[in-house]
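Appendix C reproduces, verbatim, an entry submitted by the partner laboratory led by Prof. M.T., so that reviewers can inspect both the input and the predicted structure.
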Amino acid sequence: MAFLSRKNRLLVVKILGLLSIIRWPNVLFTALAQYVSAVYIFTPNRSHWDVIKDPELHFIVAATAFIVAAGFIINSFYDLEKDLINRPHRTLFDRVVSKEFCLRMYFIFNAVGLAFSLLASWRVLIFFAAFIFWLWLYSHKLQKIPVIREFTASILSVISVFSIALYYQHVSWMIVLFAATVISVLFNRELIKDLKNLDGDLAVGNQSITTKWGARTSKNIFGLVSIVIVAITLSFYHYSTANYKMGYVLFVSFSSLLAWGILTTTKGKKSLFWAHRIYKIMLAGGILYLVIM
């Protein structure tokens, strides 16, 4: 960036800082998951091309992307003190973006998201208005309440992907099972994040399952949810007709139990790193399963 003026270099750094705050890989992953869900789950009787060329689908995905990005901004706004402890290097980079700029972009992103949702329908607009409020409530209040914090974060993540169900109005038992699996996986991922962010939560007074009942209880709950994940994924065997269905069941079941084993037998941050990485792979594998189920 040597060829840029100081003002332009600062602008580039601010843009990079904003992209870091909105966690653009997560936003892209959500958009990808929505498109895959629309094509392979919610429109079983339509051709893939008919689904993709539907402009209202793109409006809903765009609305979700902007509103989820705004949700990350407001969450970062409230979590700044905690993040300075848990993720000091990344947070210091993010701080090149002022709080005033973050709040301005928060309102702009939400406004753009609502505009896209209105292009889809009034019903979608009302849904996303409620979603924005729920995201704010989570960042401001709910993430300070143990159990509610982890469960709400899991539900919000699923809603961000399955919001297109409101448009297609197609629900089946397979979709319910898949959503239950994703919620359970995300709940365990939140437990891992609680363990990773223990120091910051204690410093700012945020209550999580880990801060209230201890790391051992968190790991026991993690194990219980892992067993639930295995039970749910095994039920896919009865409802999926694909030849490779047991491969997916074994993949999710083994991954859940492996992460639990790592957390209970290995000490230190490495165990949290690998358990978190396993859960990221599981979520990506879930998207792949949607394509081939």
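The mean pLDDT is 83. Additional entries are available on request from the coordinating office.
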